[in-house]
Task: structure prediction
Amino acid sequence: MKTVLIAGASSGIGFEAAKLFLKNGWRVLAGARNQTRMQPLAELGAEIFPLDVCDAQSCKDAAARCDRIDVLVNCAGYGQYGPIECVKEEDAKRQMDTNVFGIVRMVQEVAPIMRKQGSGRIINITSCGGMATTYLGGWYHMSKYAAESLCDALRMELKPFGIRVIAIEPGLVKTGWEAITADHLERAGEGTVYEADCKTVAAVYRAAASWDAVTKPETAAKKIYCAATAAHPKARYLFGFGGRALVAARRLLSAGIYDAVMRKMFGLKVTKKLSGTA
Result:
């Protein structure tokens, strides 16, 4: 029986990925800070445990749970949106610590195990937002650009040891990320010159939770499972609502036009049109 260790398995993509691996007969080690949310996974056969990717000892304890790990899936992450100058330094550091150093800590613990066994796959959930930046999402996008570069570096470093590194790059996925991001955005902009724009963009993300076109987490889970089991997995899997379009726009448009498009995209008129209420 093959073993997968999933960091960030309490909700969204990580939760659905754990279910899919269990369905296909894998031993699933599911870690997250919220134990209560993982109880359904335990009932399905997963081994659940507390895991905080911002804590080095927690990551060490997670990796020590078994002698063999065939696949590591790094799903832990969130979106700290808000104007660059308005997001508090401690919040910005927490964003980078979770979305970037969280991956690093897990890799530092799991890579030696995979190297010893001569094989393994490390699958990191990055984002289309690691290749293109949207309005008022600077700190989040910085973390995802860093995660993309991290995947490239690890892929080169670990390949000689039989370890493959794969980036999963979803567009907008309906995981509850939208509401959390909107809350962060409004708090960061409150009482500043950006307040009106922050409220407008936050409204877009809250509305997105009801859009049928937004990618379901089950779809992302299938991409992860494909990356884990394909004989020749791709280095990157770009998919999901708005993902390819956003990346294409960033590559094809001039900086000035791209910036204008991003600001216009996050207007309330666009929100109403996409939600079918225009």
Summary: DSSP finds eleven helices and seven strands in the chain. The chain has one domain: 3-175+215-249.
